[in-house]
Amino acid sequence: MKRIVKIVILSFLLLTAAISSCRRLPDLNTDPVVARVGERELHRSDLAGVVSVGIVGEDSIQVVETYIEGWARRYIKLDEAERMLKDNKDIERQIREYREALLIRNIDLYYGEQAKDTTVTETQIADYYAVHKAEFMLDRTIVKGIVVRVPVSYRQQARLKELLTSPQAPRRQDFRDMAVKNGFEMREFTTWTAWNDFVAMLPEGEKVTAANAVTGKYTETTFGNYKYMLFVDSALKNGDTAPLERVSESIARIIRNARINDAIRTNEDSLFRAGLASGEIELGIKN
To answer: By CB distance 3.0 to 4.6 Å, which of 48, 171, 175, 190 could disulfide with 166?
Structure first.
């Protein structure tokens, strides 16, 4: 005979009381049942945190009602599944395998955490990069350089260009000072930057293609009342080896993950050897 399932949801007044108490745990002697499915009970204390801060009145009542109904639906469905599948050996196997996998995952996480926060030095990163350079290929063009916008009426454009393209640091600083003094919009990229970001200062529709991404190349283009001067200090193309500074964080993560995996494997090996030594593990058993 099927088990009789009772679902009890209390009246509006009890819901109101639950709502007013849902952000604090009630006294142990005043924790009434607000819903029941078979032998399972949902208590008022279980509603703590259900209603978010700022939700009041009818809205909060609706939130609680929806939660209680959802709880009831979940467990009435679970009861039905347990009745229908109680003799299903495959379900039992899946539950057992999931439990084992969950336990193993958590013990791995425990030992992995011991190695997680270890320091990765710049030398270790550089050594890894030197051995695995071929694994770090660029998927886009990147550059370092400067973009400056000057009015087409500016009379010292030639001087500005001369200073911009000079390989001498003092003359580059003269360029910066000259641009700042005249209030020119300027962007200097001292770290590797994708080409599209490098030319983002240009007006929409004004294209300067990545073909101009060549180390030491000067490019200029005029749009309206302004001239845009671009100078590429360094450039790497799509397919080139990525520079160390661009991939150092990724390498540090790789090294840390390798240490975590090593810690997990070391623990596993230790347990295995101990099991063999104690006789808890027996291999090659012959009947």
So the answer is: 171
Q: How far apart are CA 72 and CA 7, in angstroms?
A: 7
3-state secondary structure of 219: strand
Torsion angles phi and psi, residue 262, rounded to 5: -65, -40
pTM for the structure as a whole: 0.64
Please give the CATH number for the structural domain made up of 138-236: 3.10.50
pLDDT one-digit tens code per residue, 94-124:
989 999 999 999 999 998 888 777 789 999 9
Q: Is 137 strand, coil or helix?
A: strand
Q: Check if the beta carbon of residue 220 is closer than 8 Å to that of residue 227.
A: yes
> Residues of 199-218 as b/e, b for ≥16 C-beta within 10 angstroms?
beebeeeeebebebbeeebe
Of all helices (H) and strands (E), which one includes residue 181? helix 169-181
What are the residue ranges spanned by the domains of the chain?
A: 12-85, 88-123+243-267, 138-236
Sign of the dihedral through C-alpha 77, 83, 88, 90: positive
Give the H or E element holding residue 107.
helix 89-116
The neighbouring-strand residues paired with 276 are none
Are residues 85 and 91 in contact, defined by beta-carbon separation less than 8 angstroms? yes
Is 205 within 8 Å of 174 (Cβ atoms)? no
Could you report the per-residue pLDDT of 243-268, keeping only the tens digit for each? 999 999 999 999 999 999 999 999 99
Longest CA pairwise span in the chain (Å): 99
Cβ(123)–Cβ(279) below 8 Å: no
